[in-house]
Amino acid sequence: MKIGMIGAGEMGGTLIRQYTKAGHRVKMANASGIEKLKSLALETRASAVTLTDVVTDVDVIVITIPLIGILKLPKQLFKNAPTRTVLVDTCNYYPIRDGILKDIEDGMPESVWVSNQLQRPVVKAYNSILYRSLVHSGLPKGTPSRLALPVSGDDKLSKDVVSVLVGDSGFDALDYGSLQDSWRQQPGSPAYCTDLTLAQLKKSIESARKELLPGGRELGLKYIMTHDPELWTDNVKHNREIYESNLDA
Ligand SMILES: NC(=O)c1ccc[n+]([C@@H]2O[C@H](COP(=O)([O-])OP(=O)(O)OC[C@H]3O[C@@H](n4cnc5c(N)ncnc54)[C@H](OP(=O)(O)O)[C@@H]3O)[C@@H](O)[C@H]2O)c1
Fold this sequence. Notes:
The chain is α/β, with parallel strands linked by helices. It has helices spanning 10-21, 38-44, 51-54, 95-98, 102-105, 110-118, 131-136, 156-168, 198-206, 213-226, 232-248; strands at 2-6, 25-29, 47-48, 60-63, 86-89, 123-124, 148-151, 172-175.
C-alpha cells in the first residue's frame, strides 16, 4: 500500500518502521519540517515530504499527532484526497497536553471529534497500545499469545484495510463496530494499553464503563509521569489494575 504519515514521533516513527519493513511505500510529514526526519528517512527509506505532499496519491493516511494538533492542520488539507483514501486516527485526548475540549468532556468520542474537525470519516486504531508494546510485542499470525488491537469506524472496507496493517505489525485486529462506540478503546478503558489477546480483548472491551474513563485516564497518566518509561510492562500491569479496581467499584 501507499501510506502517508502525519506525525513521525514515538508512535508515528514506530509505524513507519513497521510499514516499510512490511514492504509498504511510506511518505511522512511532521510539524517542524523535513530536516528533523532525515535520519528516519535514511533508516527506513520512507520519504520526508510536506503536509500537502503527504496526503497526495496514497491509499491510507495515518494521523498520529497530539490531538490538539488536529486543529493546527491546514484547512482543506484533505480536499484533494479521494474519498476512498482511508484516514486512520491514533490520537488520544489528554487535557494536560491538549487543553480542555468541551465536546469531548461532554462525552463525544474522541475520534468522532477528530472526524468532525477533519470533515472526513476516520478509523480509530493503534491508540490503545503503548508504542513500546508495538515495538516489542508483535508476533506471527496464529501464535496463541498474539495481542490484539481494536479497530473502530463506520466503513467496513476501511476497517479491513487498517486490519491488514495491524496484522503487518504483528497484532490481531478486532473490528469493534462504529466510531460512536470507539470510546470503549479510549484512555482509562479496560482495552487501553493493557496488552490483551483477542479473546481477552473481546471480553474486556464489552465491560468498559464510560463514566469511569476520565478517572482511569488520570490514574494511568500519573503512573507514566512518575515511573521509568523503559519499564513499560509495569505500566501495562498498572493499567490492568486500574481496570480491575474499576470492576469492583
Ligand atoms: N507514544 C505512545 O505510546 C502512543 C500510544 C498510543 C497513542 N498515542 C497517540 O498518538 C499521537 C502521537 O503520539 P506520539 O507519542 O507519537 O507523539 P510525539 O512523539 O510527540 O510525536 C508527535 C509527532 O506529531 C508531529 N506533529 C505535531 N503537531 C503536528 C501538526 N500540526 N502537523 C503535523 N505534524 C505534527 C510532530 O512533529 P515535530 O516533531 O516536528 O514536532 C511529531 O512528529 C498522540 O495523540 C498520542 O496520544 C501515542
